[in-house]
Amino acid sequence: MANPFRNLPSVSQLLESPPLKRIVETVNHNVVVSGVRSFLDDLRQRVARTVESIDLPSPQELAQQIADWLSAQRPSSFRTAINGTGILLHTGLGRAPLSDAAIERVVATAGYTNLEIDLITGERGDRGAIVRQLLRDVTGAEDALVANNNAAATMLALGTLARGKEVIVSRGQLVEIGGHYRLPDIIAASGCRLREVGTTNKTRLSDYERAIGPETGALVRVHTSNYRVVGFQESVTIDELIQLGRKRDLPVVDDIGSGALMDFQRYGLAGEPTVRGSIANGADLVLFSGDKLLGGPQCGIAVGSREVIARMAAEPLMRAFRVDKLTLAALSATLELHLDPDRAQREIPLLQMLNTPVENLEFRARKLADLLAPLACLQSVHAAPSTALLGGGSIPEQSIPSWSVAIQPQGMSVSALAAALRGQNPSVVGRIENDCLLLDLRTIAPKYDVALVNAFERLAPATQSGNGQT
């Protein structure tokens, strides 16, 4: 019997095929080689177990089968994404993009760095001392602490202040955010007992006053950043809560969530509390995220009383929750930009996007539409006004004027076009609306315009081939 494997291509020949060459570009070469050999070994075993003769796939078919198998076996590798969704703080796309200054600082810190060494004495230093000073400078707080996210900062704060005691929170502020985060669960995990007051839509100062007793450990205000209660509603201001805390000798924790270091009303976005405002009002602790309105890396930040911060830093969990040198590097560079508000607006990507005039976005949208319109894979392309959202659980009910490129494909569905663009490198992610793929220019930096056009041009030959066109 003739050897059925005689005509199988070699591993090196398969690696030169277009389907596998594309995978090699994004995955380690040795990993792909191992995968090809594993697939071929499995194929040989299946053929050997088959009594009847079997037609083996052609080299081209075999390469495509292996490429499909490898893609199904492995999750997508990290790659740059062009965010055309119009959601500025897109959680799925990594929330706030870092500034060039932060990226440069991360690269410079990737090797050895003075993370925990005093360069003057040569002895062991204080991890994060530089960042703590910067946080004091930009917020006006006595001291600061950085954990790996805001949930960790919340657990440390409540465990430090009220472990074994009650934490009083308005029923209308018992938030749930993405990733299965529920405030009641965090309170329980920190060793405290939740004491709800008020109703979903109305909580008065008298509700807090009646709930305070010998078992009370802290008063907590949580900014409902990802939803709003409107209409017949009433809530207690942070100033009123702080006054009550002072009167009853209880600490007040203000979890403002998104971490605004400036008043976002300058961008037409109202209702977002600022860190400095809460500190100035007298909150004992203010908690917020680093990768939202601050425009930095993922982390949780606590600023406030020197005494409370020192107690939090001494908690055993602090070592489990502390951040690495790369996070501290990116955060320090971001905070340095915030020392100069004008420079922050120019260089922090989130603030750049918010600060871009809508006329600029319209100009770019029309120009991109003109460049894409001739492609045979697209049925129609036009510039259209649209609305962007801040995202990241911040200011949910307010939109931002923007402009988009609206695209209808030729020979494929809109969802298929969206999937094909997500598979590009860099990946292009848009949103589908009214049977069009929208690419919102509010969230696409001008430096990506050429890459965006290139992504469509790479799709065009494959689409034409699939339609039988030449």
Folded structure, characterized:
With 470 residues, this protein is an alpha/beta fold. The chain has 19 helices and 16 strands. It has three domains: 11-73, no CATH class; 81-92 and 354-466, Aspartate Aminotransferase, domain 1 (Alpha-Beta Complex), CATH 3.90.1150.110; 100-347, 3-Layer(aba) Sandwich (Aspartate Aminotransferase, domain 2), CATH 3.40.640. Strands 3-11-10-9-8-4-7 form a seven-stranded mixed beta sheet, with helices on both faces. A five-stranded mixed beta sheet has the order 2-12-13-16-15. The longest helix has 21 residues, at 29-49. The radius of gyration is 27 Å and the shape is globular.
Count of the separate structural domains: 3
Q: Please report the first level of CATH classification, the CATH class of the largest domain.
A: Alpha Beta
Q: Helical content, roughly?
A: 40-55%
Strand order of the largest sheet: 3-11-10-9-8-4-7
Provide a concise account of the structure shown.
The chain is α/β, with parallel strands linked by helices and 470 residues long.
Itemize the secondary structure elements and their pairings:
Layout: H1 11-15, H2 18-26, H3 29-49, H4 59-73, E1 81-83, E2 87-89, H5 100-109, H6 129-139, E3 143-147, H7 150-162, E4 166-170, E5 176-177, E6 181-182, H8 183-189, E7 193-197, H9 205-211, E8 216-222, H10 238-247, E9 252-257, H11 275-281, E10 285-289, E11 300-304, H12 306-313, H13 317-321, H14 325-338, H15 341-347, H16 349-355, H17 358-372, E12 378-391, E13 394-409, H18 414-422, E14 427-429, E15 431-433, E16 436-440, H19 449-466
Name the descriptors.
470 residues; alpha/beta; Aspartate Aminotransferase, domain 1; Aspartate Aminotransferase, domain 2; 3 domains; disordered C terminus
